[in-house]
Each structure stands twice: as structure tokens, then as C-alpha cells.
């Protein structure tokens, strides 16, 4: 398994032969039927890079063991805390875009606050970004959030903005979960997780309607308690589609049909591979846009 499809499906890094060696390793060693995808967008990328052999591949939910506790919507609708939890890094642009949008959000209700939990290489830049806009009283940086405190902190939220599994865990508690689109530069969102279909939800370029963060939050804030409670329940139901139980059922069915393992005989030329790693490091020092981490 890999953390992110761009561990090997990337095209922005030089030198190209390093990238091509990784493509070759994946393409030749892993039978198409053995490649498991956690969303539809990953299949589209694989088809684009490796060809039609991945068309129609199986899609699985990521498989999360959700907490059992849920919020009381009648209390959370009165909260004015909007919360994000996640690493402050280059592809999670929604933190910056929410800060840009916050003057508009304060027009909806000046009591709104944006609480950001997380650490990362862009944290100093985000702090300067907030200070340059004079939003220190409304946008609060908390640093890393211990996982054992996630439930307590998120339980106080009016809404959650983010991506990845943190968004799903917030939704599973009944918090209205607003999609933070990764690598988006427009400051837009697909809206609530409950409005989307399928397992792709935070990738850029999905075929879902877009709206501003302020528009989405305004609809939640002005819809009333019953509408908020309905959104809360729909987010819980939607998050349940990504549960570990759903994954296990699909995975057992998959194993009964495709018990194929990667080919251990496939090799790549290690000297060339090592030269590629060193070249990536050197180029990354000269141009930060060519850092290996920029593949995300």
C-alpha cells in the first residue's frame, strides 16, 4: 500500500528517467487485477498513465474505524467555530483560501472563528498570511492536535473544513463537513460531503458543482436548526460509506476473485535509480518547485 497515488503517479519531478523507473516498476510488477483503488479519481489517473488495463477496476472505501459518539445538532448549530485539522502543507491550499474568504464569512456573523489545528512546512507562511490581513482575532492557529483530543475539539464545531480522513471522521460525528479541495487555487469547494456521490471527494477537477466557502457557510448559518440537523444526519450517513465494515465486505469479495500477488522477478536498475534520487535532491535545493514533496 501507499500513502498517496502520487508516490509513484507523478509527472512534475525531474529527472524524467527517475519517474520512468517508478512507472516501469508499478506497471510491470503489479497485475492490473491486484491494484486496489480508494476512489474513482485514482483509476482515471492510472488509466491515463498506464493504459486501459485499469478501466473498470474495483473501488474500495478507505476503511475507517469511526468513533461512536455524535454531536447534538441543537447545540452545534449555535457554535461559531469552524475547524480544520491537518498538515499545513503545499497541496492543502484550503487553509489559505479559507483565510482569504474569512472577511466575507464575518459578514454572515462577526462571531465566526476559524480554528486551524496542524503543523507543517507552511505554518510560518500561513501565520504571516493571517497577520497581513489583520485576522488574528478570528483565525486561530493551535499547532498539532493529539489524536486522542480530536473528538473533544471537533465536538464543539459548527462546521469542519478539510480533506482526507479527518473530514470523514468529523462527518461521522455529525459535524457538517465542507470539502477542502486539494491544490485548488480558486478558493472554491464542492460543498458538503453529503452532497457528493462516490469515493472521490477532495481531488481537484471532479465533476461536481463548485461554490465559495462563504456561500456554503451562509446556507448552513441561515437555514435554521431543523435544516442544520438534517445536514448533520446526512453527513453521518455519507461518512458511514467509508467505514472499515464496508471495506472488509468488499475486500473479502475481492480476494475470492483476485488472489494475485506482485511479480517478485521484476527489477529496476538500482544505480540509475540511486542517481535519480540524488538528482531529485540536488534539483530540489535549486528550485523548490522541483522538490520530491511537490509531487503531491
Short overview:
By secondary structure, this protein is of the alpha/beta class. The chain has eleven helices and seven strands.
List the helices and strands and how they pair.
Blueprint: H1 16-29, H2 40-50, H3 73-76, E1 81-85, H4 94-108, E2 113-117, H5 123-132, E3 139-143, H6 150-154, E4 159-162, H7 164-172, E5 177-179, E6 188-189, E7 211-212, H8 213-222, H9 225-240, H10 244-257, H11 270-286
Parallel strand pairs: 1-2, 1-4, 2-3, 4-5
Antiparallel strand pairs: 6-7
Account of the protein in words:
There is one protein chain. Helix 7 (164-172) links the parallel strand 4 (159-162) and strand 5 (177-179). The chain starts with 15 loop residues before the first helix and ends in a 10-residue tail after the last helix. Helix 1 packs across helix 11 (270-286) and helix 7 crosses helix 9 (225-240). Helix content is 42%, strand content 9%. The protein is of the alpha/beta class. The protein has helices at residues 16-29, 40-50, 73-76, 94-108, 123-132, 150-154, 164-172, 213-222, 225-240, 244-257, 270-286; strands at residues 81-85, 113-117, 139-143, 159-162, 177-179, 188-189, 211-212.
Amino acid at each position: 500500500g501507499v500513502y498517496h497515488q502520487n508516490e509513484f503517479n507523478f509527472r512534475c519531478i525531474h529527472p524524467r528517467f527517475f519517474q520512468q523507473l517508478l512507472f516501469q516498476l508499478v506497471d510491470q510488477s503489479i497485475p492490473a487485477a491486484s491494484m486496489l483503488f480508494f476512489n474513482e479519481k485514482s483509476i482515471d489517473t492510472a488509466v491515463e498513465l498506464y493504459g486501459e488495463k485499469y478501466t473498470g477496476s474495483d473501488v474500495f472505501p478507505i476503511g475507517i474505524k469511526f468513533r461512536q459518539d455524535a454531536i447534538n445538532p441543537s447545540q452545534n448549530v449555535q457554535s461559531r467555530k469552524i475547524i480544520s485539522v491537518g498538515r499545513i502543507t503545499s497541496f492543502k491550499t484550503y487553509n489559505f483560501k479559507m483565510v482569504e474568504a474569512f472577511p466575507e464569512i464575518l459578514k454572515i456573523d462577526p462571531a465566526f472563528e476559524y480554528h486551524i489545528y496542524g503543523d507543517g512546512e507552511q505554518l510560518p507562511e500561513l501565520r504571516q498570511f493571517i497577520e497581513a490581513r489583520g485576522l488574528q482575532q478570528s483565525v486561530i492557529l493551535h499547532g498539532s492536535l493529539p489524536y486522542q483530543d480530536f473528538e473533544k475539539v471537533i465536538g464543539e464545531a459548527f462546521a469542519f473544513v478539510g480533506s482526507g480522513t479527518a473530514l470523514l471522521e468529523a462527518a461521522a460525528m455529525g459535524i457538517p463537513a465542507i470539502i477542502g479541495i486539494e491544490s485548488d487555487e480558486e478558493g472554491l469547494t464542492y460543498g458538503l460531503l453529503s452532497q457528493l456521490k462516490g469515493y472521490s471527494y477532495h481531488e481537484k477537477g471532479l465533476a461536481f458543482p463548485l461554490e465559495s466557502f462563504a456561500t456554503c457557510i451562509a446556507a448552513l448559518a441561515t437555514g435554521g436548526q431543523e435544516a442544520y440537523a438534517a445536514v448533520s444526519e446526512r453527513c453521518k450517513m455519507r461518512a458511514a460509506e467509508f467505514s472499515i465494515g464496508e471495506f472488509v465486505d468488499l475486500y473479502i469479495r475481492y480476494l475470492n476473485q483476485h488472489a494475485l500477488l506482485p511479480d517478485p522477478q521484476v527489477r529496476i536498475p538500482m544505480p540509475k535509480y540511486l542517481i535519480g534520487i540524488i538528482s531529485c535532491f540536488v534539483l530540489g535545493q535549486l528550485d523548490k518547485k522541483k522538490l520530491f514533496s511537490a509531487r503531491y
